[in-house]
Amino acid sequence: EPWERxxxxxxxxxxxxxxxxxxxxxxxxxxEVAYAIVNEGRRLLGCDRLSLVEVHRKRTRLLxxxxxxxxxxxxxxxxxxxxxxxxxxxxxxxxxxxGDSSPLPPQLQEALDEYxxxxxxxxxxxxxxxxxxxxADVSFEASDRPAIGMLVVEDFRALVDEDDLWAGVEDxxxxxxxxxxxxxxxxxxxxxxxxxxxxxxxxxxxxxRTMLAIATMALLFVxxxxxxxxxx
Length: 232
Known about the structure:
The protein is an alpha+beta fold.
């Protein structure tokens, strides 16, 4: 398959790659990171569309699609992609479609054919993303850790050389996983939602420094009552 033939070379456009890496690591806000990954990643890879799907406790959620401000989450194509991504997460291996889905297991083949019919894509890859190991898991390889997301690469015109495309995906895959993990970690922290709400309120009141200080103090005050800890 093209994925197996792809060489480990780094894309020749080093300046585009550096801009991509700087963009995805410049923030830990999940929405900002997700859209940096898909928009800058599409430019770097030369594919027609790049999407990012979150995987959490066997559930999948489309985070961002290149070229759009917000995906239509209730549309049939989005639901189909999320179902397909969940099945790929169970397999925990990249899948490649170039016109023939018959080598895949029946359930995965059926879900892939359903999405292809919705999206009319000629070439497709869905790639599991892994974060870095936790301290307790340092002995495990990346392949042993569960996927935290899926990178969906779509090519409608088939103008990009297959080997170059998949070599580029493999090159950025570890860094995309790391950026996504950092953003998801912050997103899932206690009181993260309250912190974001206070930040938005501060930005609307045109007093960034003052409101940031107020928001921080309010967050600490709430944390005193919400977070349980030992009293020594």
